[in-house]
């Protein structure tokens, strides 16, 4: 495959890199090392900038006013946008805008008016509530939240775990079991306003990602109108699964940025730091770590771009996306670990971003399907369906 | 672990502050009646962690602030947000000088 960038892609990559280096990194010098947001005035100023660049709302489809980037260009941007301290989970602090919940693009016109368009205008926020205390890797079988039809309404009862943004969301996309089928054919997706009686954010769940928390939700006989069903009754798992597959490519790409930045920092450090009378860069142990980093970074980049190109050309990309997610998360974790080792004591301090990337990358090997599930997906494709 | 910060109140004075380790964490500062004046955190930009943060609180509130309670945690950002949410749930609004945070703080129904 040819991974060389065309003229437009190179321009976008260069522009994004300059934006991160000149607009984002200098602001981080004045923020708490675990900060998750910019000062409001800086946020507003940079949103104005990205809008003037034509890059606001990167993931919004072109027909809804987005810039219409292909997956490859979007992945290249994700690699650049994540090359700063908060970049792994909060690339450029969101100043390039969000797209809302991708599933809502499949909603009815009435549902779009009520939830999608206000989200795109920045007036409403949504959250995605799939995982439950009973498990997240096999959601089709783990979902125990029940939906029982009662006239023109459904009554939802149950709980969800590790849900991001639910405490600030105006609505939630909730997946509930609505038939006796114990698998994927018994799950329905509901759009639920979070002020619905019975919707509770019960607690904050603290994680390695110290700047941000997840939440645990509880639904006590929450009454939801029939018209709030997204898609078909008992067809919700396909909606959830579609997101899980499509998300893997940008999710993987975003892991590469911190690895690239950490490698650059380590090279600079190795050339300037002297031990036993010579720079670290002259020590074979350091040289090999730098080389292993480069191999990991290039391998991850190759896998991400291969998956993105297949997606862009309309080919099947499920195996490639799973491989990209697995390789990028694991390779970048190894890179950060080596970079901390190269830096020594300062590498584990909050003076540098390495410790934050180290903590947050560990989550990436679990989130959006752990490495083992990615291997399972690839094994099914390689060995064939009979080995499910 | 309870989600509320229910540690023992300590006197907010220079001597007590100086006796604390320079760790990162979260805290409440209150007046003599126990009214919480600040829900705060000591982050990595505080030179001596909670000592520096409490010295700033003392300088800000003056003699009105008489006591504090704290909890050490490296997750000071998410724990701070949690404490703000709990305060909002329990009292309906944040301490007066922190009301700018109110628009970004989420809602919690812990009971």
Describe the structure.
Chain A has 388 residues and is of the alpha+beta class. Chain A has three domains: 7-103, Butyryl-Coa Dehydrogenase, subunit A, domain 1; 126-230, Butyryl-CoA Dehydrogenase, subunit A, domain 2 (Beta Barrel), CATH 2.40.110.10; 238-387, Butyryl-CoA Dehydrogenase, subunit A, domain 3. Chain A has ten helices and ten strands. A four-stranded mixed sheet of chain A has the order 1-4-5-8. In chain A, helix 8 (318-343) runs antiparallel to helix 10. The model of chain A has no long low-confidence stretch (mean pLDDT 93). With 111 residues, chain B is an alpha+beta fold. Chain B has a single domain (10-103), classed as GIY-YIG endonuclease. Chain B contains three helices and four strands, in the order E-H-E-E-H-E-H. Chain B has helices spanning 14-19, 49-61, 76-91, and strands at 10-11, 25-30, 36-42, 67-72. The mean pLDDT of chain B is 94.
Helix content of chain B: 25-40%
- The CATH architecture of chain B would be 3-Layer(aba) Sandwich
For the record, the CATH class of chain B is: Alpha Beta
What is the SS-derived class of chain B?
Answer: alpha+beta
Total beta strands of chain B: 4
Total helical segments of chain A: 10
Query: Major sheet of chain B, described briefly?
Result: 4 strands, antiparallel
**How do the strands line up in the largest sheet of chain B?**
1-4-2-3
Query: What structural class do helix, strand and pairing data of chain A support?
Result: alpha+beta
Assembly of the depicted chains: heterodimer
Instruction: Compute the average pLDDT of chain A.
Output: 93
CATH class call of the largest domain in chain A: Mainly Alpha
Which of globular, elongated, flat, extended, rod-shaped describes the shape of chain B? globular
Determine the N-to-C terminus distance of chain A.
Answer: 30 Å
CATH architecture of the largest domain in chain A: Up-down Bundle
